[in-house]
């Protein structure tokens, strides 16, 4: 499984993909490899919100050397981009999704311990000293040397390389994951009749489980990781376990080498703390966004009110101009009417003067005629 380099990146990917809250885990299958140390891993079948698509997610824990060897044998198809959630591929934020390969990632931060070069090659491929193993069907006790136990305890405690691989089930990459599962044996399954965990909640649980313990071959290895996640899922979501292979989980060839540390309760507690913190962060972001939206709404309303005031002022200015124009037109009409009245008065006065002058001329003419008549009468 390829590296997902930091816990910060892992949780950012969970936080920045809200669609993962609408995709749900319908089944968990615990697998055990058939050969070698019988490495164990979990498979999660996740359905999309429309229930039309299913994604397969494999999660496991191993030491860095063991996982690098697995990387060489587990093919990846970079030409088939897939997402952590089921459903059609959607564009991913390159900042929010720091995956180095489209279908593989490492959970948490890998911080190798200070083991020397000789001890770094020790891994799940070599059983710890002082344990029981089987060879050709016979059980034998491995040699335990007191001088070797102390040095071995350092070499077996390294940074965990907890990884996930995921792909849409019917894709080419999904076929590769199906092949990976087909090589292993189904140990048991887990279903959720009460409440299914979302892909978002699963991501949180895988993160907090990865952070619980460093990798140790004789304690917190792949068996511990699968068991812790399994028990936490049962406790948190009411998962119902269905045994398939006679409770072979946590064993090598049927033999339980060392007691597995039970960290399910601690994982549940850390999960609840992480979910509460995530919910608080989401709520704070929601409140901040609501405040920003309210502020934007106030700004929009103030801008709208300013526009309304400006529009009202413009309308008032236009009305004032209209009133001024109407008053000016009224004054012009009154002035024109006054001028016309004065003109008519002048014309009437001129006509009266003309008539008076004509009457005076007529009177003068009559007087002249009268005088003429008198003169003729006197001479006769």
Entry keywords:
380 residues; alpha+beta; seven-stranded antiparallel β-sheet; two-stranded antiparallel ribbon; 11 strands; 16% strand
A few lines on this structure:
This protein has 380 residues and is an alpha+beta fold.
Write a structural description.
The protein is rod-shaped and about 185 Å long. Mean pLDDT is 74; it is low at 1-7, 66-103 and 109-157. It is α+β, with helices and mostly antiparallel strands and 380 residues long. The strands form three sheets. A seven-stranded antiparallel β-sheet has the order 4-8-3-2-1-9-11, with helices on both faces. A two-stranded antiparallel ribbon has the order 5-6. Helix 5 (199-212) packs across helix 6 and helix 5 crosses helix 7. The longest helix has 116 residues, at 264-379. The chain is built from seven helices and eleven strands.
Record the SSE blueprint.
Blueprint: H1 7-15, E1 24-33, E2 40-47, E3 54-60, H2 64-73, E4 104-107, E5 132-135, E6 138-141, H3 146-155, E7 157-158, E8 162-168, H4 172-182, E9 184-191, H5 199-212, E10 215-216, H6 222-237, E11 240-243, H7 264-379
Antiparallel strand pairs: 1-2, 1-9, 2-3, 3-8, 4-8, 5-6, 7-10, 9-11
